[in-house]
Amino acid sequence: MWNMLLSFSGLVALIQLLFLPFFPESPPYLLLQKGDKSGCLKAMKELWGEGNYHTEFDDMMKEKSVTKTTKIMNVLEVLKDRSVYPQLSTMLLLLLSLQLCGLSATANLQESIIPYVSLGVSICELISIIFCSSIIDHFGRRILLWGGYLLMALILVLLETSLLLSDQFLWMRYCSVILIFLFIIAYGIGP
C-alpha cells in the first residue's frame, strides 16, 4: 500500500499548494526583511482580525533595531561558531531520522544498493540545507513554501508513475531513486 500512502502525501501537498497563495505574508517577514511597515500592519489585521497591535509592532521594531547590529553569517561561519553546536546537533539528529522513514525501500531496489541510497538521501538533505539557508532571505518563506510544495506534488506524481512501471522496466527503479532525492531537496528547500 506504499502507492496509496505516497498518493495521500501528494494530495495533502496539493491542497496546501492551492491554499497558500490566499494567506498573507508573515508580519515579521514583511517588517524585518522587507521593511514594509504598512504591509506588516495589514498582514496583522488579516491574520488576527481587527484590533490594536501596537505592542506586537513595537516588539518587532525593537527586534529590527537589534538585528541591524547583528552580523548575518554564511553557512561556513555558522559551522565554525561553537556556540551554535547544540542547535546544529539537534538539527542533524532530526535530519538523520529521515533515514528511518522508508523512502529507500519504496524504490524496490536490491538490498545491496539501499545503503548508497541512504547516503544519497543524506547528501540531498545537506544540499537542501545549504541551498535554502543561502536563498531564504532573498526569496522569503512564502515563495520557498509555495515552490517547495509545487515541486513535491509534481515529484510525487512522477514517483508514483515510476513505481507503477518499475516491474515492467527495471531502469524505472533508478528513476525512482532520483525522484526520491529530488523530493528530499524540494522538501528541504520549501517546507
Fold topology:
Elements: H1 2-19, H2 27-33, H3 37-48, H4 54-68, H5 75-80, H6 85-97, H7 103-106, H8 114-139, H9 141-165, H10 172-189
Helix pairs in contact: 1-9, 2-3, 8-9, 8-10, 9-10
Short key terms for the protein model shown above:
191 residues; mainly alpha
Helical run tally? 10
Main sheet characteristics: none
β-strand amount: under 5%
**What is the N-to-C order of secondary-structure elements (H for helix, E for strand)?**
HHHHHHHHHH
Which residues sit in consecutive blocks of at least 5 with pLDDT less than 50? Answer: none
- Shape verdict: flat
Radius of gyration, taken over Cα atoms and rounded to an integer in Å: 20 Å
Span of the ends, CA to CA: 25 Å
How does this model look, in words?
- It comes from Crotophaga sulcirostris.
- The chain crosses the membrane at residues 6-24, 113-136, 143-165, 171-190.
- There is one protein chain.
- With 191 residues, the protein is mainly α.
- The protein has 2 domains: 1-68, no CATH class; 75-188, no CATH class.
- Helices cover 75% and strands 0% of the residues.
